[in-house]
Amino acid sequence: MRLGAAFAVLCASAALAGCTGSEPAPRPSATTTPTPAPSLGPLGQAGCKPASPFISAELQGTPEEAGTSLYGMVFVRSDGPLPVGESIKVAWRMTGKGDLTVRLIDPDGRRKKLDWGPEAHGGSNYHRPGDEWGTGFTLAKPGCWELRFSRDSSHASVWIDATS
């Protein structure tokens, strides 16, 4: 009987020790896929059919690869269409590795220069997945503009339907 009672106490102690939380929680492995951020709406497509979602001053890009995400916080005065002829400042967050390249394509398919950027940001209170950069650009005329984003192996586009 004594051996049985000692065994029961040992088993109970082991069970309780497992419930104390003294063991550190396992860390996610490097291969863990991050949880995708929620979509702001139907993702944009070429020709602005549809344009990229633009809600509460936030844009969402359309990724080319699974696991890539792109969001932009637009610094504008209203939540309406983006203005033609004014410089637009955006803080972008994009997943992936490496530097960010951004190309601005006008409605006629011609590449245009950004007003500035991309400039890497060290930190902010804009909480979306990925690293953060800032850009400035001007939509010189009405129509469907494309912003193409590239990192080492991550690519995405934003389509903006600019109206006058």
Can you characterise this structure?
The N terminus is likely disordered. Strand 10 and strand 11 form a beta hairpin. With 164 residues, the chain is mainly beta. It has a single domain, classed as Immunoglobulin-like. It has 1 helix and 11 strands. The strands form 2 sheets. Strands 1-2-4-5-9-8 form a 6-stranded antiparallel β-sheet, with no helix packed on it. The protein starts with a helix and ends with a strand. 24% of the residues are buried.
Secondary-structure blueprint:
Layout: H1 2-18, E1 54-55, E2 58-60, E3 62-63, E4 70-75, E5 87-94, E6 101-105, E7 111-112, E8 116-120, E9 131-138, E10 143-150, E11 155-162
Mean pLDDT: 81
Morphology call: globular
Number of domains: 1
Task: Classify the fold: give the CATH topology.
Answer: Immunoglobulin-like
Features:
disordered N terminus, Immunoglobulin-like, globular, mainly beta, 11 strands, about 35% strand, 5-stranded antiparallel sheet, 6-stranded antiparallel sheet, single chain, 1 helix, about 160 residues
Provide a quick synopsis of the model.
The chain has 164 residues and is mainly beta.
